[in-house]
Amino acid sequence: MSKKSEKDLDQKQDRKEEQELDIKVEGPSSEKEDSSDAEKDKHDNQEKASEGKDSEATLKAQIAEMNDKYLRLYSDFDNYRKRVNKEKLEMVKTASSDVVLALLPVIDDMERAIKAFQDTEAALGEKAAEDEMEKDLKVKGDQKNALFEGVNLIYNKMINVLKQKGVTECEVMGKTFDPELAEAIAQIPAPDESQKGMVLDVVQKGYAIEDKVIRFAKVVVGC
User: Fold this and answer.
1) CA dihedral in degrees (21, 26, 28, 31; nearest 10)?
2) Which intervals of the chain are annotated as region Disordered (predicted)?
């Protein structure tokens, strides 16, 4: 073999060894790069998952806050509606009270007139004069009866109208004195021990609309 051939062979052998060496050197580096890329992708995916969880938690918190605000707003509106309705009812009751209070003195006068007529009739009794004036007395008596019946009819109608509007009389006669319903204007000795602190007479009746007293009864209490 010539020296040139041997030289060429040696050069080829050297190039082959260099290529193998390059492959050995490049192999681990490539694997490291692949591993690094995989770790980076994994890290990116973890970050995205974490961001997704944070966004979901934030959204849930916002929904809960909005729901709480809605419930508070609804509760405030419901309370406002109830308060307005209550105020309207109070205004109606107040207006009704004013009208009734204006009528009560008229009713008091009618009751006094009826009582006066009844007391007069009781005092006179059924005694009639048997003389020439008997006819005139009978005519006057009939006129009084007609007047009494008219007053009594109007009185009963007024009482019925008041009852329809929720007005009731405060029943205090013969009961233990209650300052929530009556005003004691006088005290007198009680006929017996059992009537001490009891209402013995009603000078002026008291009235209420539903559960609200609009005029206290004026009474005499036993002591």
Assistant:
1) -150
2) 1-58
Kindly report, residue by residue over 46-103, the tens digit of the pLDDT: 666 566 666 778 888 888 888 888 888 888 888 878 887 777 777 666 667 888 888 9
What are the distances in angstroms from CA 145 to CA 21, 93, 111, 140, 150?
145, 38, 16, 9, 9
Task: Give the chain's domain count.
Answer: 2
Provide Rg for the chain, Cα atoms.
54
- For residue 193, the enclosing domain spans 166-223
Identify the helix (H) or strand (E) that includes residue 187: strand 182-188
Pick from 82, 104, 126: which residue ends a domain?
Answer: 104
Q: Is the dihedral of CA 207, 208, 209, 210 positive or negative?
A: negative
Helix (H) or strand (E) holding 4: helix 3-124
Lookup result for tokens 């019925």: 160
Low-confidence stretches of the chain (pLDDT < 50) are: 24-30, 128-134, 137, 139
The CATH number given to whatever domain includes residue 204 is 2.30.22.10
Distance CA 221, CA 183 (A): 10
Are 3 and 87 within one domain? yes
CB of 148 within 8 A of CB of 192?
no
